Amino acid sequence: MITILFALLAIPAMAGSADILVIGDSHATGCFGTSLYDQLETFRPIGSANNARVHLIATCGSSVLSWTKDHSTRCGFLDCAPGAPCTLKARFSTTGSTASLDSLLAKLNPRVTVVALGSNMLKWGWRNSQAQVAGLIATIHSRKSACLWIGPPTPGLQGSSCVAKGKYDEYIEKMKAFVEGLGCAFVHSGDYTESARVPASDPQCMHQGCKSATAWAAEAYRTEIQDVLHRFF
After folding, report:
1. 212 is in which domain, residue-wise?
2. What is the pLDDT of residues 58-93, one digit of tens each?
3. 3: closest CA among 233, 193, 176?
4. For 195-220, what is each residue's pLDDT tens digit?
5. In the chain, how many domains are there?
6. Which one-letter DSSP state was computed for residue 224?
């Protein structure tokens, strides 16, 4: 479950801002991303007459390092802007490019930044991920945005590319403690996903089927994410 630190609550509200920026990897270019977008669009801050505006940008294959600079992808891209339906048919493309996270923060001025990254970093090991994670969180906070990190889902069990369950558990345990220690809320996606839901045909051994990915986003939002957002707005 999620831990909220005082440092998160101390981030000042910005006048006229009720935006949520989501960045993510291939999970967010698919059914998880569209489901998360739809859930976030229903969020209405207490005392507000309007729902928060959501902008989601996701690039297949991306890690923390990808978002430190402008980058492009050739395996999947999803860009869903506020107020527009976020469907794979309308918004997904195989190729696409985006600005760095710092540039996006400067342009969009989000109240909250949601980071859905980690699957492409599991094989690095936590020691090789720590500095990059710290840098991304520092970038978010430097732009006066609150931070919520959605960790990677449980990997599959079939195939040579699968990350061992023990290695996944160790990585997520360290990631959660570290991220929260830097004042960023953390959602443990292992609470909402199962290895058995990863199709044996997935060459990366990490992607939940569409039904499972949709439920992952919806359940995480209902159980944890909306409560965190109320503390930020």
Report:
1. 6-232
2. 999 999 999 999 999 999 999 999 988 999 999 999
3. 176
4. 999 999 999 999 999 999 999 999 99
5. 1
6. I
